[in-house]
Design a protein that fits this description.
The complex is a heterotrimer of chains A (301), B (271) and C (328). By secondary structure, chain A is of the alpha/beta class. Chain A has a domain of 202 residues: 3-Layer(aba) Sandwich (Rossmann fold). In chain A, strand 1 and strand 2 form a beta hairpin. Chain B has 271 residues and is mainly α. Helices cover 84% and strands 1% of the residues of chain B. Chain B contains nine helices and two strands; from the N terminus they run αααααααββαα. In chain B, strands 1-2 form a two-stranded antiparallel ribbon. In chain B, helix 4 packs antiparallel against helix 6 and helix 4 runs antiparallel to helix 9. Chain C is elongated, with a radius of gyration of 57 Å. The chains are: A alpha/beta (301), B mainly alpha (271), C alpha/beta (328). The interface between B and C is medium-sized, with 38 and 30 residues.
Chain lengths: 301, 271, 328
């Protein structure tokens, strides 16, 4: 817990941009304290493990990536995520956070720059090769994006049926295991259809589907948006549990700064089509930058 | 370059792009019919959706079309004293034209809109992206089964449409004109036989009557999938895609029908 | 949990629908086979035509007006001097009819149906000739083509025109009052006369019908009839009386005595006539001797003069004579 001592830093008043840096620092510390205390129920992170992983090669890396449709979406973005890390990309709505996920998934191809997954450049890949690369990743969509023509079982089993030779019994066993992991009662939900589920349950089924094929990278698009605080906490804990127990590398796109501070080991702030900050949550909270302080303040009030 | 020319240029490019995307989609969807994995379950499900669930409207359409054809032609033929030719008229019109076109229009309205709405909402709720993410080509998973199902089921529906239509003609011929059923059916077979055979055994009318629904099936499926997958703008966009699909595929059916007819009439030797 | 079993109702419904469509096609092909002898073996005949008159490959071939096969192809022959063999038509004909089509059968292009479809119709052969085999050439009968018909019709039309011309002349002269017909149609007097005649006839008929007139009596009165009957009866009895042998007329009719007498008289007369004509005897001489005639003629003339004289002056001659008788 290298970053934990920072929680005890004095409070700063970061409300409204006209106050001094000391006040900001105090405020952000209060926020971080609050965030950390929420996470107190969880087991402490294995610092050594995380540090060892982080030192290894990059899992997801963006090098000077630019993309424009009719207008530029992102310009010259570079990011690096090492194994076992949870990186959060934050920013205002409509700044192209989800675009970065789509670039990583190669649903989009950058105009310039390279995207590397486990060191492999995926930009020149063909459509079919990209499908194979995507199997390394599990994606959780904002609205869960469950196939509403399929039952929960079929949704979770889908990647298994698509990409493995598992027989029906093995698949069922795996589906139950994943549903249990996301705290759902398999017997209750397995035959239900997405339309019959609540938003939080749908999200959890989405996570179960994303991790069904045991991917090494998990991508989350706004995992906590539109959920009540309690469910938000549940989902956040789930993401952390995934990272901790299975050691997957995670990429989270969110504007929910509370949740991000709880789970992220690295934070990238996307502002005005560019990454304006990249570092740990603590570094971010400690930043003197006016925009960052405004951004953080905007979510803490 | 003047501003309006630039706009014209852009408009032309976007139309051509639309056309290109349409054919790329069609080409991919067709190619995936033979590529693995084959989503048999989806195909059967779509066949049920397109075929079985459209059976009711197709039966009604066919029956009443055949009846009204017989009724109209009985009036017209009576002036020539040729009422016994009702069977010829009904069978030729149903098999060559009305059966395929009306089945096509009905399916375009019922199934095309359904496909566009379903794929549109899948696009809007990121299910298409989810498929991509899960390593599945949405075209293979969504478009190809629908295309294949439409290619198979539209001819099936057309055959039933034709058959029911000719039966409808039979009913009117015997009730209104008093033509004996046996003679009616004899004229039906004679008409088909007299239109000649390709490769000695395949009646020209059947070639024409089955080529059309296959093409129409493809048109409906690809148009619906194209607009469905291209949906933008949330639920409102889904509605737009649905409307566009029905309008476009209906018009395409009527236009393509003309050209297929012309092509087949020049290729097939009608006796 | 419920796992989707492999056979679902959906699959069965789809299968049933497809099966129904295939069944319809199957029935249709079967009935078409019956209608068009689709599944019969065929053999090929060749026909050479000057003009296909709109025949098409795939067109229908009839044998004696019954569907028998199709036209396989129509090809142009190389240009030569034979203008009756410009096209080669290959006919595919039902094998079962091979016995009917013989070397005296004739193929003919005919127009058929409501829309004027062109077909080839083959007449049935006679047993004296052999049946045509695969690849044989069938003779072609000149088809009654429209142009020939029109050429013939043109002559008839010309005749018709002349005829109507004559007819017009007749009618025009009639209208102008020339000739009997014209007079009949145009002369008022004739009409009036006719009307007069008719009215008189009418009046006469009216009088005939008058119950008191003779004719009417004749028609109506039984007494006349009765009298007539009685007259006839009397005549009848008269005839019976005539037939009676004893009556004068009866004897005349039945007794041959009179006849014998008359015959005898006739014979006597005959001999008399002979004597007379022989110039013998006085009468004969009288008849035959011209001198006698002259003398008699002179005599009578003299006698006439004397008689004349006597008439003038009878006393000259009667003195003595009268004196003889009365001499006073």
């Amino acid at each position: 817990m290298a970053d934990r001592p920072r929680v005890s830093e004095p409070d700063h008043d970061r409300r409204s941009g006209d106050v001094g840096p000391a006040a900001d620092e105090r405020k952000s510390a209060a926020v971080r304290h609050a965030i950390r205390s929420e996470l107190a129920v969880d087991a402490p992170k294995d610092d050594a493990h995380a540090a060892k992983r982080a030192s290894e090669t990059s899992i997801v890396e963006l090098q000077h990536v630019s993309l424009a449709f009719d207008v530029p979406i992102i310009e010259d973005i570079s990011l690096i995520t090492r194994e076992g890390e949870t990186m959060a990309i934050v920013g205002e709505s409509g700044t192209g956070k989800s675009t970065i996920l789509k670039l990583v998934l190669r649903l989009l191809v950058p105009d310039r720059g390279r995207v590397l997954i486990e060191g492999e450049d995926i930009t020149p890949l063909s459509f079919e090769e990209a499908l194979a690369v995507r199997q390394k990743m599990g994606m959780v969509f904002q609205g869960a994006a469950l196939f509403d023509s399929m039952s929960v079982f079929e949704n979770v089993a889908y990647p298994l049926r698509e990409h493995t030779d598992m027989n029906d019994d093995e698949i069922e066993q795996r589906v139950r295991e994943k549903l249990q992991f996301v705290d759902l009662d398999p017997d209750r939900v397995i035959d239900q259809f997405p339309a019959e589920l609540s938003g939080g349950m749908r999200k959890r089924v989405g996570i179960a589907r994303g991790m069904a094929n045991n991917p090494r990278i998990m991508l989350y698009d706004e995992p906590t948006s539109g959920l009540d605080p309690l469910t938000t906490g549940t989902i956040t804990r789930l993401i952390m549990k995934l990272q901790r127990e299975l050691g997957v590398t995670s990429l989270v796109v969110s504007h929910d700064i509370r949740a991000v501070f709880r789970m992220a080991s690295k934070v990238a702030l996307l502002h005005d089509r560019r990454i304006t900050f990249f570092g740990t949550p603590e570094e971010m909270a400690g930043s003197e930058d006016q925009y960052i302080q405004d951004f953080l303040g905007g979510f803490t009030t | 370059m003047p501003a309006f020319l630039t706009r014209l240029n852009d408009a032309a490019k976007s139309k051509i792009l639309t056309l290109q995307e349409y054919f790329v989609l069609a080409g991919k969807a067709l190619r995936f019919i033979v590529a693995r994995p084959f989503y048999g379950q989806d195909v059967v499900q779509q066949m049920d959706e397109i075929g079985v669930k459209s059976l009711g409207i197709v039966l009604l359409t066919g029956l009443f079309t055949g009846m009204v054809l017989a009724l109209q032609s009985s009036v017209q033929l009576k002036t020539f004293g040729a009422s016994m030719y009702i069977g010829n008229l009904v069978s030729a019109s149903m098999i060559r034209e009305l059966g395929p076109v009306l089945a096509g229009l009905m399916v375009a309205g019922r199934v095309g809109s359904g496909i566009a709405a379903q794929l549109g909402s899948m696009r809007v709720t990121e299910q298409i992206d989810a498929l991509n993410t899960l390593g599945t080509d949405p075209i293979k998973k969504l478009v190809t089964p629908r295309l294949l199902a439409a290619l198979i089921m539209l001819p099936v529906l057309t055959i039933i449409n034709d058959f029911v239509g000719i039966i409808g003609g039979n009913i009117i011929a015997s009730l209104v004109v008093g033509l004996p059923s046996a003679q009616y059916w004899r004229t039906v077979w004679v008409q088909i036989a007299s239109d000649g055979f390709a490769l000695r055994y395949i009646p020209n009318d059947f070639i024409q009557g089955l080529t059309k629904p296959i093409v129409f099936g493809g048109l409906i499926a690809i148009t619906a999938c194209y607009f469905g997958l291209g949906t933008t703008g949330g639920t409102e966009g889904v509605g737009q895609s649905t409307t566009r699909t029905v309008v476009t595929s209906s018009i395409l059916i009527l236009i393509v029908d003309y050209f297929i007819t012309q092509l087949l009439l020049s290729v097939l030797t009608y006796g | 949990m419920k796992r989707p079993s492999f056979i679902t109702w959906e699959q069965l419904k789809v299968g049933l629908l497809i099966a129904a469509a295939l069944a319809v096609i199957g029935i249709a092909i079967y009935r078409l086979g019956q209608a068009a002898n689709l599944f019969s073996r065929r053999y090929e005949l060749l026909a050479y035509l000057p003009n296909a008159s709109g025949l098409q490959a795939g067109g229908v071939v009839y044998v004696a007006g019954q569907y028998a096969g199709t036209i396989k192809s129509i090809d142009f022959l190389p240009v030569d001097n034979d203008t009756l063999r410009n096209l080669r038509v290959r006919l595919a004909i039902d094998h079962a009819l091979q016995d009917q089509v013989r070397s005296d059968s004739k193929a003919k292009v005919r127009t058929l149906g409501l829309l004027g479809d062109k077909v080839i119709d083959i007449s049935i052969g006679t047993p004296r000739y052999s049946a045509l085999r695969d690849g044989d050439t069938i003779a072609v009968a000149p088809s009654l083509d429209y142009e020939a018909v029109l050429a013939q019709a043109a002559g008839a039309v010309n005749d018709m025109v002349d005829l109507t011309h004559d007819l017009r002349q007749i009618t025009s002269s009639v209208v102008e009052g020339k000739g009997t017909m014209g007079q009949l149609l145009t002369n008022r007097a004739l009409y009036d006369q006719f009307v007069g005649t008719m009215s008189r006839a009418n009046a006469m008929l009216a009088r005939v019908e008058n119950p008191n007139g003779t004719f009417a009596r004749l028609l109506d009165d039984p007494t006349l009839y009765n009298r007539f009957v009685s007259v006839v009866t009397s005549a009848d009895s008269l005839v019976i009386a005539l037939n009676d042998k004893n009556g004068t007329i009866g004897k005349l009719l039945r007794d041959d005595t009179l006849y014998t007498h008359i015959v005898g008289m006739a014979i006597a007369g005959d001999s008399l006539m002979k004597t007379l004509s022989n110039g013998q005897g006085f009468a004969g001489r009288l008849l035959n001797d011209p001198a006698l005639y002259d003398r008699i003629n002179k005599l009578t003339t003299d006698l006439g003069a004397i008689l004349e004289d006597v008439r003038k002056d009878p006393r000259r001659y009667t003195r003595g004579v009268i004196c003889v008788f009365r001499c006073k």
